[in-house]
Design a protein that fits this description.
Number of strands: 4
Order of helices and strands: EEEHHEHH
Oligomer: single chain
Distance between the termini: 21 Å
Number of helices: 4
Radius of gyration: 12 Å
Number of domains: 1
Structural class: alpha+beta
């Protein structure tokens, strides 16, 4: 289960994310307003962050996900991130 809680608005947006499947990991995530506008395709910020985590969890265990990071660094580790992200966003 992925729980996303937005902790700050503005720029950057800030989130606390908990990933639980027996044990839990906790992550602090930031996202610039510019990246949100470019990537969200009309979805809420928390939906975008959840989609990013589902993308990550398809590629690595929750324990391998950084404890603190900005959404833009995902593409540094996984170049296909921005191309594949729409597949993880909720449908309209």
């Amino acid at each position: 289960m992925i729980e996303v809680k937005q902790t700050a608005g503005g720029d950057p947006l800030r989130f606390d994310v908990a990933v639980t499947d027996g044990t839990a990991t906790h992550h602090e995530v930031t996202m610039s307003a510019r990246d949100y506008g470019r990537l969200a395709q009309g979805r809420a910020p928390d939906q975008l962050v959840e989609a990013a985590f589902r993308f990550l969890l398809d590629r690595e265990p929750k324990e391998a996900i950084l404890g603190r990071f900005d959404v833009k660094v995902i593409g540094s580790y996984f170049p296909e991130f921005e191309q594949k992200l729409p597949e993880y966003l909720p449908s309209d």
